[in-house]
Structures are given as structure tokens and as C-alpha cells.
Amino acid sequence: MKLTSLLEKNLSGLRSYEPGRGKEKIREDYDIKEPVKLASNENPYGCSPRVRAGIEKEMSRLKEYPESMAEPLRRDLADFYDITPEEIIVGNGSDELIGLLVEMMGRNQGEIIYADPSFVKYRVYIQSKGCRGVAVPLDENYRHDLSAMKAKITEKIRLIFICDPNNPTGTLLTAAEITAFLREVPEHVLVVIDQAYHEYVTDPEYFSAVADRENWPNLLILRTFSKAYGLAGLRVGYGISSPEIIHYLTQLKDTFNSNRLAQAAACAALKDQQHIEDSRRKNNREKEYLYQKLEELKLDYQISQGNFVLIETSAASRKISKKLEEQGIIVKPGAALGLENTVRATVGSRSDNQKLLAALEKIVSGWNLAI
Q1: Does 367 score more than 90 pLDDT?
Q2: Same structural domain, 162 and 218
Q3: pLDDT per residue as tens digits for the range 250-260
Q4: Residue 370 domain-assigned?
Q5: Would you say 163 and 134 are in contact if contact means Cβ atoms under 8 Å apart?
Q6: Is 351 exposed, middle or buried (0-12, 13-18, 19+ CB in 10 A)?
Q7: Residues 158 and 236 in one domain
């Protein structure tokens, strides 16, 4: 058998992650000078101004490998959360940690439960590492169906992913719901609460997770610097769990998985919580603006606890996305997320949001046309 044939056989069932299209491609395809990218849930206000100084201090050390365990960042995170550095692992984005968790818990035919639709990378890593995933549909309100997930737990289940707030729906579980679920999960199952959008949440019923972690030895929390902290281009995520789980997870990570500039940037960003507060306030203001204008356009949407809004459409999501791209607006088609007839739009600046709404208005006014 040829090598290419073998690879085709091994990877034929794998559906890879579909990233948002870049601005450069839209410029080339449609001759648009300044496209608006609202596909990847990046912070439209960027990172803290302190980050530049943090990076510049490290520039003279680029010839040196970074701290293998990201010790300065782990110490800063430990101080921030009032825990120990041994309870923290830093990753090349939380994506890397998701892959390591799948690898660690999916060995020896371990099975993994995840919601559908949810963050696509759960499924991608499960498939790419040859593990068996158990997809559990969201309930009728686009929320994790914890009862259905609990019913899927068997002796073979080793890992459960819960994305909270859920991407792409923006829905949230309450602390009471998650706590009740954790009480029912056998101790041989690791529960991962992926809180990539933690800093944007305002719901008082939110499960803070870190404060309650000591009560749940089989719980791991994922968070990231890619969203509210505005460091998506540097790839820094982290996990918080018991020292024992962190120890075993560390055995699988690459020796120098987080680069020197990324670590310095994250340390600087963490120290500027005013920037996070400002980003959250602006995000809330712009979400309310989007909700109001979407209602005027008679477009249904999902109330979101993240920095994105899931918008329902009356046509196939890829057709809608293409129509928006022709006007210079990049959104995520729901088909790439498992939700046809929807698009997911990042909550941008007021200018970005106005451009999105103007483009949507043109499309809505032509619903009767073949789009």
C-alpha cells in the first residue's frame, strides 16, 4: 500500500477545524480595503498596553529557550487565584491542553463525552488521536443536557468536556446545575470545564469553578489569554486542577510548549485587570446594541454570555456568510459549527457592529431572492 493511500485510509473520517477566513483573503477576493473580521471571537480592543513593555524586556533573550514550566506565569496565576503553582499547567493555547487531555484520558480505549454542538476542537482531537467520542446533543434551549450526559457515563468513560459558556451558542449552566452533576460523576471520570470566555460572563449564577475546585478532585478548569486578554496571536492557555492531575498532564506536554514572548505577555496582561473590566463593559454595551438592532431586523438570536452572538438565518449559513464576505464582513458559518441556518458573529466595536448590521439589512431585505 502506498503511503498516501495509508494516510487517506487513516484520516478519511477526520473533519478538521475550520478557522475563520483571514482579512487578506477577503481583500484579494473582493477588492475590499478594510474587511471586518468577526469570525474568531477576538477582543476588538486588543491587549493591555502593558503587554508591549513585557515583550520588549524579553527581546534580548530570544536566543534562549523559554521556561519549560512557565514558572513566572504559573506563580503570577497562583497569586491571582490564591492557589499553588503546582495546580496550574500552561499550554500553547488551551487547544494544546485539550489535545493532551484527550491523549491522557483516551488511552486504553477510554471514551470521551462532549456536547454537540460545542467547541469543535473536542471532536477534532478525539478523532485525530483515534479515541472514541460520545456526542450528546444540546437541549432545546441550546444548553448542555447534563442529564443526558450523565446517562452516557459507563465504566469506559474517562473524560467529559463541558464548555461554559458554550461556544457557539453562548449559553451558560448554573453553579447549582454543575455542582449537582459533579456529585453524580464517578471518581474515575475527569470533568473538564472549559471557560475560555470566563472574563466576559456577568450572570450571577455562573459556576466560578476555581473557588470550588478543591471539593472536586476529578475537575479541571481551562481558561485562556486568547479572548478577553487579547493575546490570540501569542497562544497562551492554562489549566487548573489538583497537583496530581497537573503532574500527569505535564508528562505529555512538549518541553518548551509556551514561547518566551507569550509567557511575558501573559504575565503583563494578567496584571492589568482594568483592561479586562473595560473590555467586559464595552462587550456588554455592544451586545445590547446588537440585540436591539437584530430585533429591528426581525432576526432571532441567542442571548450570549460570551463575546459573540449566534444569529439565526432563513438561508444556508455558508450562503449567508459568503454574502456577508462580499460586503467585507467575515463571520463564522453555522455549518462549520454544527448549526445550519445560523451564523456566529463576534461582538466587535461599534463601527464593526454597524457594518455587520448594515450588511445583514441588505441581505434581509432580499430574503425573497435566491441566496
Answers
A1: no
A2: yes
A3: 999 999 999 99
A4: no
A5: no
A6: exposed
A7: yes
Q: Mapping DSSP to helix (H, G, I), strand (E, B) and coil, where does residue 305 land?
A: coil
- Distance, in Å, from the CA atom of 257 to the CA atom of 249, rounded to the nearest integer, reads 13
How far apart are the C-alpha atoms of 310 and 313, rounded to whole Å? 10
Number of folded domains that form the chain: 2
Residue 292 confidence (pLDDT): 98
136 and 183 share a domain?
yes
Is a pLDDT exceeding 90 seen at residue 10? no
pTM above 0.85, yes or no: yes
249 lies in which domain range? 50-272
What distance separates the 2 farthest-apart alpha carbons in the chain?
61
**What does the block give as the cell for 17?**
477545524
- Same domain? For 221 and 309 the reply is no
Query: Which of residues 160 and 336 earns the better pLDDT score?
Result: 160
Q: Are residues 149 and 236 in the same domain?
A: yes
**Any alpha helices (H) in 39-119, and if so which ranges?**
50-58, 71-81, 93-105
The CATH number of residue 64's host domain is 3.40.640.10
Cα torsion 49, 55, 59, 63 to 10°: value is -170
From residue 304, how far is each of 172, 229, 284, 291 by CA, in Å?
Answer: 8, 19, 10, 10
Which of 217, 240, 272 is the last residue in one of the domains? 272
Question: Residue 9 — pLDDT band, cuts 50, 70, 90?
Answer: low
Dump pLDDT digits (tens) for 148-192. Answer: 999 999 999 999 999 999 999 999 999 999 999 999 999 999 999
Q: Which residues contact 171 (CB under 8 A, 6 or more apart)?
A: 138, 141, 142, 143, 144, 165, 302, 303, 304, 305
In the listed set 223, 251, 272, which residue is the last one of a domain according to the structure?
272
**Percentage, residues of the chain above pLDDT 70:** 94
Query: C-alpha grid cell for residue 33?
Result: 480595503
Q: What size, in residues, is the chain?
A: 371
